[in-house]
Specification:
Elements: E1 7-10, H1 11-33, H2 39-49, E2 61-64, E3 71-74, H3 76-79, H4 82-94, H5 105-121, H6 127-134, H7 137-143, H8 152-165, H9 171-187
Parallel strand pairs: 1-3
Antiparallel strand pairs: 2-3
Helix pairs in contact: 1-2, 5-8, 8-9
């Protein structure tokens, strides 16, 4: 999985790095197609072509599979104030927005790793995971978390975070965690 991780840092820096790489890529193409045209004009065009991405204020971290800057990044807003993040996470767990045991920064990272593992192993396509999601968002919200009810990918990430961080993961999180571990062992057997 390490080869897939091309960026570590803040989400804002990740978006900025992506934009700089995209502008450079477009600029190279413009230079090749328009020899002799003023570089400043070409750069201005490339800059307009690539819109800056913004990080939502309520995003703690994200997992992005964009090829040139793929990886997990933390929102600088939350990264600069770990105490505020911990307090907010504790409240999220208390209200059921996130699963039991996930009130730590480690759990936030595990959630994002859950997205990376889902992409790597295609966990959302596993029949047992599809069966969990088929029970409906209301069941998923009750048995994993409020956020897990958003879509199957968030159910997987939330379930993985609970599985990795709760002293007693509940059945749905346990099924998700065991499915990920099984698929990982199947794809990457020890000693192979």
């Amino acid at each position: 999985m390490r080869a897939r991780q091309k960026f570590a840092g803040s989400a804002q820096a990740q978006f900025s790095r992506w934009r700089a790489l995209e502008v450079a890529r477009i600029l190279d193409g413009l230079r090749a197609a328009n020899p002799g045209v003023d570089d400043g004009a070409l750069r201005a065009y490339a800059e307009r072509k690539v819109k800056a991405k913004k990080v939502a204020g309520n995003t703690y971290a994200h997992s992005w599979d964009q090829p040139s800057v793929s990886g997990i990044a933390v929102n600088a807003k939350w990264g600069k104030d770990p105490a505020a993040l911990k307090a907010t996470l504790a409240n999220d767990v208390k209200t059921g927005w996130h699963p039991p045991g996930t009130q730590t920064i480690k759990a936030v990272v595990d959630h994002e790793l859950g997205h990376q593992l889902d992409t790597l192993l295609e966990i959302a396509n596993e029949p047992e995971i599809q069966a969990l999601w088929a029970q409906g968002p209301a069941v998923v919200r009750a048995d994993v978390s409020g956020y897990a009810g958003k879509n199957i990918k968030e159910m997987i990430a939330e379930g993985w975070a609970e599985y990795r961080n709760s002293a007693a993961p509940r059945p749905m999180a346990k099924k998700i965690g065991e499915t990920i571990e099984r698929r990982y062992r199947d794809r990457y057997p020890a000693g192979a």
